[in-house]
Design goal:
6 helices; 136 residues; alpha/beta
Length: 136
């Protein structure tokens, strides 16, 4: 079993592009339930369910990476506004606290950014776009 999939592991949940859970809470809750069924404990950041400004979403990303109690960072869904978040990230802090990031769609911007600074990232595994889908 990979370190990410170990029962009891906590994972940070972020909405770096769009707060989809605000608009589709049932889909989001199903995704969370499926993560929990796999033994993971999701930890939401403040802008998951409410659209935050680019600085607020960057703050949440930084908090998710620096949280010593979580082993990975999952995006809720994609969106169309993530490029505005990237200038507010501190690459040195992120490098000092590397952990896998999972996302897709507009999160590709963040995936490429993280890869460029040496942090593992995976295209896919978003809470709403993948875990909440029929068949999980």
């Amino acid at each position: 079993m990979s370190p990410l999939a170990c029962p009891g592991n906590r994972v940070s949940i972020v909405s770096p592009s769009w707060a989809g859970p605000q608009h589709f809470p049932g889909v989001y809750e199903q995704g969370l339930e499926r993560l929990q069924a796999r033994g993971l404990e999701p930890v939401e950041t403040p802008t998951v369910r409410v659209q935050g400004s680019p600085k607020e979403r960057a703050r949440d990303l930084m908090a998710a990476f620096t949280d010593p109690t979580t082993v990975a960072v999952f995006a809720t869904i994609g969106g169309d506004d993530q490029l505005t978040v990237l200038p507010h990230l501190d690459p040195e802090v992120l490098r000092a606290h590397p952990k896998p990031f999972l996302g897709y769609s507009a999160n590709t911007n963040l995936l490429v950014y993280l890869d460029s600074i040496g942090i593992p990232s995976l295209h896919g595994g978003a809470v709403m776009g993948h875990f909440a889908r029929p068949g999980g």
